C-alpha cells in the first residue's frame, strides 16, 4: 500500500495509535481508583497524584539517567499521597471527596512548585517496542510503536479481575467496600484495608503520571495533564467498578480523545473540544441512565460515599 | 482571625469562675473560630517549614505575605478584587451545604455564567449601558443557576450523586466554553488567544469611586448578606436547614424537599454565574479560557474554611484573596515559583478538613475543666 492511497485510512490508524498512547494514563489511574473504590473510599485526589507522579518521574529520570527509576519514584510518590488521603479520611467525620479535592490542589501545586526547574532540561525517556517492523507504511509503524507500560497495564487488568474474584486480598477489599461492619466482625481493620487499597491505587496513578512525562507527550510542563486524573475517576464509574471494563473504557476514552486531532489532520477541525469532553458526557449519561431515586448505581460498592 | 481566637480563649479561661454556664453556652461558637484558626496557623507553619527546606527564610515569607496581601492600599485593592469572585463561588458550595449536599462545581457555573453574560451583552450591542449590565447580571445568574440546578435535579429525581455530577459538569462547561470561543463565538481578530468579541468599554461595570476595586465586591457582599438572611432569618431557610438535618423529618412535616433542592441549587449556581459575569464585565471584557482561573475550586476551600456560613465567607474570602494577591510579591522578592499559592491553599485545605475531627472533642471547651 503506497502512502498516497492511504487517504481516509489515516483517521482510524491515528485513532488506533492514539487510543493506545492516550489510554495508558487512563488505564493506570482507573485501575488504581478501582482498587480504592472497591474498598469503599473515593479518591478524587488522583488528578494531583498523576501530576505529581509525572513531575517526580521526570525529575528522577533526569537526575539518574534511568527512566525506570523515574517510574518507580512516581509510584512511590503516588503511594505516599494515597497514604495521606487515607490517613486524613481515617479521622472521624471527614468527607473523603473533599479531601480528594484538597489533595488535587496540593498535588498540582507541589508538582508545579518543585517541577519549575525541570521545564528546561531533557530527561531520559521510556523506550518503545516496535511492533510495526514488518510494515513499510510509516503511519502504521508509528501507531504500532507501543510502550511497555501499556502492556503492563493491559496485563494488570485481568490480574486484578482475578484477584478480586478469587484471592483472600480481593475478598477483604470487597468486604470492606460492601459492608464495613462485616469486615470488622471478621476481625479486620477496615481503616487498614482502605489505607493499603488507597496506597496501591496511588502507586498505580503515579505510574500513570510517569507515562505522561516520560513517553507521551514526553516532557514536563504545567499543562501536561488536562484533567486526565478526573477523567479516569469518572471512567471507573462508567466501567461499573470492573477492572476488565476499565481496560475497554480506557481504550474507548483514549480513542475518543485521539479522534479530535485525527480529524483535524484530515481537515475537520470543529468539535475538537467536544470530543475531549466525551468521557465526562458519557459518564454523566451512564449515571443518569443507571440511577433512580430508589436504586443507586448497579455494581457500586455499598460503602462508597457517592452511592449513599 | 487568629488573634480574635486567642482573645476568645483568654476570655473563656477567665469566665467560668464567674459564670459556670458560659462554656456550655458559647463553647460551640468558640470552637467555630478556634479550630479553623488553629488549622490556618498549622498550615502556615507547615508551609513555612516547606519554604525553609527550599532555602528561604520563613519569617521573610510571612512578612511578604502580609505585605502583599494587606500591607498597602494597592495590595488591599488587589486582595479585595480577588475576594469578590471567591465570595460568590464559595456561596455556590455553602448554600447547598445547608441541605446536606456537597456541590463542587462552582467553576463550571462560573464559566457558563460568563458565557451567558457575554452573549447577552453581544446581543444587546447599542443599548444603553445600564440595560446591558442588568441583562448581563440576569443572564449570568440564570446560566450559572441552571447549571447547578441540573446537578440538584439529577440528585433529586434520578438519584445521581451531586458531587460527581457537578464535577463532571465543570469539565463539560470548560469544553463548551472552548468550543464556542474557538468556533461559533470567536472574534476573528483574536489570533493567539481565541476569545469572543469584546462587550465594549461602555458596558464594563467599572470601579467603586476612589478605589481600583471593581463593583463586583459589592455584588459579592450583598449576595453573602442576602444568603445569610435567607438561611437564618426566613422560613425558607429554616425549611432548608430542617431538610439538611433530617430529610425524613422534613418530608413528614410536609416540606417539599424537591422544590427546596432545586431553588437552593439554582441560587447557588446563580452566585457562581454572577462571579463569571463580574470577571467578564469588570476584568476581562470578553470571554476566553483565562476565566478558568480556579476561582471555583478556591471557592470550595473558602466555603469549608468558613464552615458553610455565608457571613463567615466574607472574611475568609478576603483572607484567601490576600494569599493569592501576595503570590506576585513572593515571586519577585523571594524567588518562589508562582505555584506556591496553590501549595499553601492545598495545605490549608488539608488542615481544615482534618480539623473537622476536633469538633466537640476539646476538653476545656466542654465546660468540664
TrEMBL record, chain A:
GO terms for molecular function: transmembrane transporter activity. Keywords: Cell membrane, Membrane, Transmembrane, Transmembrane helix. Pfam families: BPD_transp_2. GO terms for cellular component: plasma membrane. It is a multi-pass membrane protein. Its main location: membrane. The chain crosses the membrane at residues 6-32, 44-63, 69-90, 97-115, 142-164, 195-217, 223-239, 246-266, 272-291. It is found in: Cell membrane. PANTHER family: ABC TRANSPORTER PERMEASE PROTEIN, SUGAR ABC TRANSPORTER INTEGRAL MEMBRANE PROTEIN-RELATED. This is ABC transporter permease. It comes from Bradyrhizobium uaiense.
Amino acid at each position: 500500500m503506497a502512502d498516497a492511497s492511504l487517504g481516509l485510512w489515516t483517521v482510524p490508524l491515528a485513532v488506533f495509535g492514539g487510543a493506545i498512547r492516550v489510554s495508558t494514563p487512563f488505564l493506570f489511574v482507573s485501575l488504581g481508583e478501582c482498587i480504592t473504590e472497591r474498598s469503599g473510599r473515593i479518591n478524587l485526589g488522583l488528578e494531583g497524584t498523576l501530576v505529581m507522579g509525572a513531575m517526580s518521574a521526570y525529575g528522577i529520570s533526569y537526575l539518574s539517567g534511568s527512566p525506570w527509576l523515574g517510574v518507580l519514584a512516581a509510584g512511590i510518590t503516588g503511594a505516599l499521597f494515597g497514604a495521606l488521603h487515607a490517613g486524613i479520611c481515617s479521622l472521624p467525620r471527614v468527607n473523603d471527596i473533599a479531601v480528594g479535592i484538597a489533595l488535587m490542589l496540593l498535588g498540582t501545586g507541589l508538582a508545579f512548585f518543585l517541577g519549575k526547574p525541570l521545564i528546561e532540561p531533557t530527561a531520559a525517556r521510556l523506550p518503545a517496542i516496535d511492533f510495526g517492523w514488518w510494515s513499510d507504511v510509516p503511519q502504521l509503524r508509528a501507531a504500532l510503536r507501543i510502550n511497555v507500560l501499556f502492556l503492563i497495564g493491559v496485563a494488570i487488568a485481568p490480574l486484578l479481575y482475578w484477584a478480586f474474584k478469587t484471592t483472600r486480598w480481593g475478598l477483604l477489599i470487597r468486604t470492606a467496600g460492601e459492608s464495613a461492619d462485616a469486615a470488622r466482625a471478621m476481625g479486620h481493620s477496615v481503616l487498614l484495608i482502605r489505607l493499603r487499597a488507597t496506597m496501591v491505587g496511588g502507586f498505580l496513578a503515579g505510574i500513570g503520571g510517569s507515562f505522561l512525562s516520560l513517553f507521551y507527550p514526553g516532557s514536563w510542563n504545567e499543562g501536561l495533564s488536562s484533567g486526565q486524573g478526573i477523567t479516569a475517576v469518572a471512567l471507573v464509574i462508567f466501567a461499573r467498578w470492573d477492572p476488565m471494563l476499565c481496560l475497554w473504557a480506557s481504550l474507548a476514552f483514549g480513542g475518543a480523545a485521539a479522534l479530535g486531532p485525527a480529524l483535524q489532520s484530515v481537515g475537520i477541525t470543529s468539535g475538537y473540544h467536544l470530543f475531549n469532553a466525551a468521557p465526562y458526557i458519557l459518564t454523566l449519561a451512564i449515571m443518569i441512565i443507571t440511577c433512580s431515586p430508589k436504586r443507586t448505581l448497579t455494581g457500586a460498592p455499598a460503602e462508597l460515599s457517592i452511592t449513599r | 482571625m487568629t488573634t480574635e481566637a486567642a482573645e476568645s480563649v483568654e476570655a473563656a479561661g477567665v469566665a467560668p469562675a464567674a459564670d459556670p454556664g458560659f462554656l456550655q453556652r458559647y463553647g460551640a461558637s468558640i470552637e467555630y473560630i478556634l479550630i479553623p484558626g488553629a488549622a490556618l496557623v498549622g498550615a502556615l507553619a507547615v508551609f513555612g517549614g516547606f519554604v525553609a527546606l527550599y532555602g528561604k527564610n520563613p519569617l521573610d515569607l510571612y512578612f511578604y505575605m502580609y505585605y502583599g496581601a494587606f500591607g498597602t492600599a494597592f495590595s488591599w485593592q488587589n486582595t479585595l478584587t480577588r475576594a469578590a469572585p471567591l465570595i460568590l463561588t464559595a456561596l455556590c458550595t455553602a448554600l447547598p451545604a445547608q441541605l446536606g449536599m456537597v456541590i463542587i462545581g462552582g467553576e463550571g457555573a462560573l464559566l457558563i455564567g460568563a458565557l451567558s453574560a457575554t452573549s447577552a451583552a453581544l446581543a444587546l450591542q447599542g443599548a444603553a449601558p445600564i440595560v446591558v449590565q442588568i441583562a448581563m447580571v440576569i443572564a449570568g445568574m440564570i446560566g450559572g443557576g441552571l447549571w447547578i440546578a441540573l446537578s440538584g435535579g439529577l440528585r433529586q429525581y434520578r438519584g445521581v450523586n451531586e458531587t460527581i455530577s457537578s464535577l463532571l459538569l465543570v469539565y463539560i462547561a470548560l469544553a463548551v466554553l472552548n468550543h464556542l470561543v474557538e468556533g461559533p463565538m470567536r472574534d476573528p481578530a483574536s489570533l493567539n488567544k481565541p476569545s469572543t468579541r469584546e462587550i465594549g468599554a461602555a458596558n464594563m461595570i467599572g470601579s467603586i469611586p476612589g478605589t481600583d476595586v471593581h463593583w463586583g465586591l459589592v455584588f459579592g457582599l450583598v449576595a453573602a448578606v442576602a444568603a445569610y438572611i435567607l438561611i437564618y432569618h426566613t422560613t425558607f431557610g429554616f425549611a432548608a436547614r430542617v431538610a439538611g438535618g433530617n430529610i425524613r423529618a422534613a418530608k413528614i412535616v410536609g416540606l417539599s424537599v424537591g422544590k427546596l433542592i432545586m431553588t437552593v441549587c439554582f441560587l447557588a449556581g446563580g452566585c457562581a454565574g454572577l462571579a463569571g459575569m463580574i470577571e467578564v464585565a469588570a476584568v476581562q471584557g470578553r470571554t476566553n479560557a483565562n476565566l478558568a482561573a480556579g476561582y471555583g475550586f478556591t471557592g470550595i476551600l473558602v466555603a469549608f474554611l468558613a464552615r458553610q456560613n455565608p457571613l463567615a465567607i466574607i472574611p475568609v474570602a478576603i483572607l484567601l484573596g490576600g494569599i493569592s494577591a501576595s503570590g506576585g510579591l513572593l515571586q519577585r522578592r523571594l524567588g518562589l515559583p508562582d505555584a506556591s499559592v496553590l501549595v499553601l491553599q492545598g495545605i490549608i485545605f488539608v488542615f481544615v478538613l482534618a480539623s473537622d475531627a476536633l469538633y466537640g472533642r476539646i476538653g476545656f471547651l466542654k465546660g468540664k475543666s
